[in-house]
Amino acid sequence: MEAADAWRLTDRLSTEHGMGDPFAAAVRATRMAMIITDPRQDDNPIVFVNEAFLGLSGYSRDEIMGRNCRFLQGEGTDRGAVQLLREAIDARRDIALDILNYRKDGTPFWNALYLSPVSNEAGELLYFFASQLDVTDRVAAQEHTRFEKERFEREVSERTRELTEALAAKTMLVHEVDHRVKNNLQMISSLLTMQTRNITDPAARSAMEQMLHRVEALGTVHRQLYQSNNVERFDVSEFARDLATDLVRGSGRNDIRLHLDLEPVEIPVEKAPPVALMMNELLTNALKHAFTEERPGRLSVSVRPDGDYLGIKVVDDGVGMPGQPLGKGSFGKRLVDTLARQLSATIAWQPADPGTRIDIRLPRKVAELEEVP
Amino acid sequence: MSESLRVLVVEDEAILSMQLELLIEDAGHVVVGTAFSAAEAIRMAHETQPDIAFVDLQLRGGSSGLDVARAVRDLEGVMIVFVTANAAMLPEDFEGGAAVIPKPFSVAIMEGTLPYLEECVRRPPPKAARPTGMRLAPAYEARWAAAS
After folding, report:
1. Based on the domain organization, do A126 and A237 belong to the same domain?
2. Which residue intervals define the domain PAC in the entry (chain A) (predicted)?
3. Is the dihedral of CA B46, B47, B53, B58 positive or negative?
């Protein structure tokens, strides 16, 4: 009978279990490497070893029966792990750990060792039972994973460093370009200012001053964009305050009161220059023509959001539209009309009795992409 | 009428330096010198003892207006006003400077700023409305607020 034949292999195992014990047969035949040692004998020798252990370690049964297990250790075995094992044995505790062991032919393998004391009912320690599992592949996979993780982390930090440097370079470039734009705008207005001083013809002088105001309005846009630290959105109210204050002061007229009704309203930056130029045209025109000599007055500027639209109102209590040459054919009028087209804006000119009221309404968002048929 | 201010212009763009000179003189003040580099500016500041120095940040040969401010800040009675397209580069304390006029400035801004600065120098604290387009240094902001 197979059971009887099989048991012969465990003849030397002196346990209290009887012959033909199916559990003993199972231990013998399992693919899990197992040994049993006897701590009551000198140096805790091996008293049982199963086939699987012989297969794993490469030793024959005769070579290892009666020896202490430490022959499995070698130069690469972690002393700390050995110490833990020794402490568990002395304390009669079970222990599970991965330890580097060596086969008879000297090749190392990672051994997932489980060691556990076996006592009888009286509490006497009889044996230690140990099972071994070759987990070299698992440990290698773990090491590979750890290595890959480290390599990945190195690459990520390298890439992060590159991107940080690229961003710093880009930020510096934007800074530099911004600086140049503003310096050049300042130079253009410097040249216009200085040239204007030498012009005596009033019409030519007036034309030069108008050009200066246009350049200065664009300069104000750039100065404001830079100060706000937001180069994508532009607050029209903030601009209107600077522009109107600047123009009224520049007009040299102390008898014109400026009334501002401003609520923050942002537009995309690409709309800022045309909006700025348009407002500059309307305000300079009002200051120049609405308040003729000796006629004091009031100029009000309102900037308010109106849903998806931006509403700008310029109201003066001056001489009214007939006196203002921002009529058909003038360059100023053409400029305003063209800018309005660019902005998809509607402009309503109405008599304010006295004076003029100009209502501008334009979409705040950038026009959607049109399909080309 | 008040006594005119003595002003040093420190700017490496000749065109801008020239315009500043004209605007300052138009307002009735005296330009005591125009410097292109930091070293030149520091030497002139010691020689001329101006009331105000208008100082650009980027100067000839890569020199910096901040060095001018550092060298001049302990010089009695010299008020530094930065005029720069790089106002964001100014340190928190303006290196002892009183104010900054960011570029590009309009003629009206300069015309509004000069009378204000004149009050700062001659009759502090200034009572005139704060000009748009000029920013006071936090230390001066606090000083004028405490004085008024």
Report:
1. no
2. 93-147
3. negative
Q: Give the integer Cα–Cα distance in Å for B80 and B72.
A: 8
Position B143 scores a pLDDT of 83
Q: A97 and A84 in contact (C-beta within 8 Å)?
A: yes
B105–A219 CB contact, under 8 Å: yes
Q: Which residues of A are less than 8 Å from B88 in CB distance? A: 226-227, 229
Q: What is the per-residue pLDDT across B65-120, written as a single tens digit (0 to 9) for each? A: 999 999 888 788 899 999 998 888 888 888 888 899 999 999 988 988 998 998 88
Task: Please indicate, yes or no, if residue A283 is contained in any of the structural domains.
Answer: yes
Instruction: Determine the residue of chain A that is closest to B111 in CA distance.
Output: A250
B14 close contact with A: CB closer than 8 A: no
**Among candidate residues A134, A166, A193, the one where a domain is terminated:** A134
The three-point CA angle A208-B53-A192 to 5° equals: 10
Tokens 């030149």, residue located: B40
Judged against a pLDDT cut of 50, whether residue B46 lies above it is answered with: yes
Kindly state whether residue A12 falls inside one of the protein's structural domains: yes
Segment A40-63, tens digit of pLDDT: 999 999 999 999 999 999 999 999
Q: What is the CATH number of the domain that holds A79?
A: 3.30.450.20
What residues of chain A have any CB closer than 8 angstroms to a CB in chain B? 175, 178-179, 182-183, 185-187, 189-191, 193-194, 197, 212, 216, 219-220, 222-223, 226-227, 229, 241-242, 245-247, 249-250
Q: Does a structural domain hold residue A246?
A: yes
| Of B22, B106, B107, Cβ closest to residue A220 | B106
- Asked whether residue A340 falls in the same domain as residue A234, the answer is yes
DSSP one-letter string for A150-216 = HHHHHHHHHHHHHHHHHHHHHHHHHHHHHHHHHHHHHHHHHHHHHHHHT---HHHHHHHHHHHHHHH
Q: What is the pTM of this model?
A: 0.69
Residue A5's pLDDT is 42
Residues of B in contact with A175 (CB under 8 A): 86
C-alpha to C-alpha distance for A294 and B70, rounded to whole angstroms: 50
Residue A189 lies in a domain: no
Contact B104 A222 (CB under 8 A): yes
**CA-based nearest residue in chain A for residue B89:** A175
Domain of A41, in residue numbers = 2-134
Q: What is the mean pLDDT of residues B117-130?
A: 84
Contact A246 B58 (CB under 8 A): no
Domain of A267: which CATH number? 3.30.565.10
> Which of these, A50, A23, A44, lies nearest to A117 by C-alpha position?
A44
pLDDT along chain A (373 residues), means of 10: 42 50 81 92 92 92 91 92 92 92 93 92 90 90 92 94 93 86 92 91 91 93 78 88 90 88 92 94 87 82 93 87 60 88 90 86 79 69
Q: Which residues of B touch A212 (CB under 8 A)?
A: 107
Closest CA to A260 of A251, A247, A274: A247
Largest CA distance in chain A: 132
- Taken in order of first residue, the domains within chain B and their CATH numbers are 6-147 (3.40.50.2300)
